[in-house]
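Q: What would this chain look like folded?
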Amino acid sequence: MSERRSTADTTALWTPDEFEAAIRAVGAERYHDKHPFHHLLHGGKLNKGQVAAWALNRYCYQSAVPRKDAALVSRVLDRQLRREWIHRVLEHDGHGDDPGGIERWLVLTDALGLDRDYVQSMTGALPATRFAVEAYVRFVYEQPLTVAVASSLTELFAPKIHKERISGMLENYDFIDDKVMAYFKKRLVQAPFDADFALNYIKDHARTRDEQEACVEAVRFKCNVLWSQLDALHHAYVTPGWIPPGAYKPETT
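A: My prediction, written as structure tokens:
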């Protein structure tokens, strides 16, 4: 490495490979596949009520994804970028014969015995879940466009956790079958495509070291959003089991 690109140089623009490596390092350290709650979930260590609590709270995130993508699109002046990004809204909300990811998620909550109106009202979600999800929507709306795009790049790490979830839950829970895993199977195809586009976009549009580092920080922020949701679930439904007033209680279903 030349003197200009020495490790002491914190102002030089990263190469595309260095930029991508910095992003991937965040996932290796912080992605929520490492959270103890997911280890319990995928290992068959949770009861049906605990799995239902996870699915109900995760619905808040699923329903927010097309909102944050619509918020991003509303800011985009580049017609081509709008054309590329709008399909993310349709992936979740559905279009044509495809019911969309939110509907596939509701198939999961149906199988777990949760009433659809209750799930969609989000009244039983943990307060921390709602705060974390809305913080993500607000982040995408307020941050510079390239940084907002970068926050989606946890999708780089998603296929691994989806594969673990599909195999682990099918193997370990008799109330889970192939049909209710449809959301995750679809994301095995969608997430890599979406992640590749977003990664190439920020490589092309983050033109200073400060912008690159802000993009890496955006991925770190998004990992924290996902992690904090699992912290709340673990605290409420595993140990010590402090369920906030008004939140879903498994014994009531």
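The chain has one domain: 22-237.
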